[in-house]
Amino acid sequence: MHGLDFGMEIRRYHSASEFLEVTAEFRATELVRTNLISSIAASVANGSRKYDAYYWWVIEDSGKTLGIASRTAPYGYVFSPMPKSVILDLVSRIKREDPDAREFAGPKAVIDQLVMNEQVMESESELIYELKDFKPINSLIIPRRASMKDYELVLDWIEEFIQETNLRSFNTKNIVRGNIDQGNYFILEVNGEPVSLGGHVSQVEILDKKIGRVGPIYTPKKFRKRGYASALTSFISQLLIDQGSIATLYTQADNPTSNKIYQNIGYVLIEEIRRVRLK
After folding, report:
1. pLDDT at position 5 over 90
2. pTM above the 0.85 mark?
3. How confident is the model at residue 76 (pLDDT cuts 50, 70, 90)?
4. What are the angstrom distances between the C-alpha of 15 and each of 22, 88, 175?
């Protein structure tokens, strides 16, 4: 053990609702960097998502939250920003209570510290963007909200998106159905033909703030380089803004095309996220 400072504690919560309640103030101060954790926990708390097992971790100092982490098995861990001095203690605790955990993601500085004494088998980077200076794209083509009539098409495109981006996904069919039911997917059509798909996750309210995340955005190869992804991203970003949300998104660090699209619309880089798989 590395030893926490006096007054510090690592707590594991078994209830997503309780975890959300005790971490609300911390998540509100780190709104963008904790959005993934917030949206996952909210979906569990409201019953819209179910997983094999749940791990909700909070690092506290005299009752004040310093950092959080979560895992919804079979997915890996997601870490928030936190002091470097507590990271290895948290990992030690995780290894005792969740020995199957192998995947960890979070701010690069946090994950770099986490893997100091570990053997890394895989490593990749994502970027978190926040919309700061919106430059909307004026398009004559207005996307339509996807319905269950579009289920097979949306499922095919989501599976292609997962394959191209090497994302891990489980229960994809149920996830697609759920997002269609919640009205989270949009289809862009040209002359009656679907050419691009866009979406957003359900928005999260924390204290007096509201945040949404754009994605996925997917255009089949034969329809690319025509501005469809830009138009969809702009449309969904405007939708989130109109609903009072801060608009954010994740993108792969090694995809210059996507990064340029988002920057041109007004998205600003907030954080590099490192994702690793340990031996």
Report:
1. no
2. yes
3. very high
4. 11, 24, 22
Kindly state the DSSP code that residue 133 receives in the 8-state scheme: S
The CA angle 95-21-209, to the nearest 5 degrees, is: 115
Q: 111, 278 in Cβ contact below 8 A?
A: no
Q: H or E stretch including 124?
A: strand 120-131
Query: 126 forms bridges with which residues in the sheet?
Result: 252, 273
CA distance 35 to 2: 29
Average pLDDT estimate for 195-221: 96
Indicate the range of 1-10, 108-117, 154-163, 255-264 predicted with least confidence. Answer: 1-10
Q: For residues 210 and 184, give the distance between their C-alpha atoms in angstroms, rounded to a whole number.
A: 16
> If we measure between CA atoms, which residue out of 66, 64, 40, 46 comes closest to residue 56?
40
CB environment 238-268: b (16+ within 10 A), e (fewer): bbbeeeebbbbbbbbbeeeebbebbeebbbe
Q: How far is CA 162 from the centre of its chain?
A: 14
Residue 159's φ and ψ, nearest 5 degrees, are: -65, -35
How far does the chain reach from its first CA to its final CA, in angstroms? Answer: 21
Q: Among 71, 128, 126, which residue's Cα sits nearest to residue 104?
A: 71
How far apart CA 254 and CA 262 sit, in angstroms, is: 14
Distance, in Å, from the CA atom of 87 to the CA atom of 106, rounded to the nearest integer, reads: 11
Q: Following CA atoms 120, 84, 35, 105 in sequence, which dihedral angle do they give, to the nearest 10 degrees?
A: 0
Phi then psi dihedrals of residue 10, to 5 deg: -110, 120
Structure tokens at 3: 């030893």
CA–CA distance, 259 with 158 (Å, rounded to integer):
20
Rg, Å, the chain Cα set = 19
Give the HSE-up count for residue 145: Cα atoms under 13 Å, Cβ half-sphere: 9
